[in-house]
Specification:
elongated, 76% helix, mainly alpha, single chain, 208 residues
């Protein structure tokens, strides 16, 4: 995982200053009364915000509503954004917190598909074993495998699912996730490690 983390961090560094400067100019324009400038921030980040919320709720309607709510809250709170972190990190924090509250209220669980297994935090060895089983016993095992996979992922708490989504799907570095969640890098790594171990422990007996 260290190579993955390093690559993600390197990708974030590329062009970061220019992106931050661009956001800062738009934010200042909004604060000066140019409300239309906020539309540019919405257009820049709405797909990423929708994606992270959808990956946490697996419900497009909820994701659309929460995305809209996120930007409304961001607009109303813009005066409180002090620039100590990047705007997108601050925006992610709003989205994640709102989504975690939504999950807690509704007790939703993330629905992971077998087709996206490699992108969603399961080790390559386990993914390969699952794929092999699918090839030899398909289509009889398809429904059962999907059910077992979903059951395993449903057992994850929202906080553990969140780090998997942010790291594996959104491509955020450990450091960025720690900013979004207001926790330490060590806690992020610990949660990610625990989540993947739980997934593998849940699925391994089924492969037996």
């Amino acid at each position: 995982m260290s190579d993955r983390s390093t690559a993600a961090a390197a990708g974030v560094q590329t062009g970061k200053v220019g992106l931050a400067d661009s956001d800062a100019r738009l934010i200042e324009s909004v604060r000066s009364g140019n409300i239309a400038a906020f539309d540019q921030l919405v257009n820049k980040y709405k797909q990423r915000i929708f994606a992270i919320i959808y990956n946490m709720t697996s419900n497009r309607e909820d994701a659309a509503d929460l995305t809209q709510d996120c930007f409304i809250k961001a607009f109303r709170s813009l005066d409180r954004f002090k620039g100590r972190s990047h705007f997108f990190t601050w925006l992610y924090r709003i989205a994640v917190n709102a989504t975690l509250s939504h999950i807690k209220r509704n007790r939703y669980r993330r629905f992971f598909s077998f087709e996206n297994l490699n992108e969603e935090g399961v080790s390559p060895d386990l993914a390969e074993a699952l794929a092999s089983k699918m090839q030899t016993e398909r289509p009889v095992m398809l429904g059962e495998l999907q059910e077992k996979l979903n059951e395993a992922l449903q057992s994850l708490s929202p906080k553990h699912r969140t780090v998997v989504v942010l790291f594996e799907i959104e491509g955020l570095s450990h450091e960025e996730i720690s900013e979004v969640l207001h926790t330490s890098v060590g806690t992020v790594r610990s949660r990610l490690h625990y989540a993947k171990r739980q997934l593998q422990a849940s699925l391994q007996p089924y492969l037996g």
